[in-house]
Design a protein that fits this description.
Order of helices and strands: HHHHHHHHH
Structural class: mainly alpha
Strand content: under 5%
Number of strands: 0
Number of domains: 2
Distance between the termini: 24 Å
Shape: globular
Helix content: over 70%
Radius of gyration: 18 Å
Number of helices: 9
Length: about 190
Amino acid sequence: MFEQLTQLVQQYGGDAVVNNNAVPNEHNEAVISETSNSIFEGLKKIVSEGGTDQIAGLFNGNSPIDSSNPVVQQIQQQLSGNLGEKFGLNNTDSNGVASNLIPQILGSLVNKAKDPNDNSFQISDIINSISGNSTQASGIMDTISKYGVQFGLDQNNDGKLDVADVLVVTKSKGGITGFIGKLFGSK
């Protein structure tokens, strides 16, 4: 997952990093790398601190992916601090880089994970990568499942989202791709 995340950062890093006079050219690649690392480590930290609801909310579309989102705020603060500490950027410049990059990258990450036609990011791979253990991954998926029940994805009305619901959908409503698309809000 880290390699794909770095590719996303490179994709969005043009204006915020490469074309930014506040970031010396000799640091462009390192700032891109630091951004990828900050996002990955930030997501892991949120999960390790019990923020499974926040991560689930990020991926199921319940919260906007902008500066009002607590996940975005936490990762922006972490990246901004790291850029100041490691590359000597002042607060204004490091905050500018972080606030330009983090919402765009997380938004793209979430959209790619939700897109059944884009297999560059799989929600299960992302969750497994950031959770570090199966108990936390299970907790995040349980939270996503809880939201899925609230949004009417419980196909057999048993009060939970599970394989039985997937089987109902695979037989009638576009297969597993349709079910996953419904779970994560894509059409």
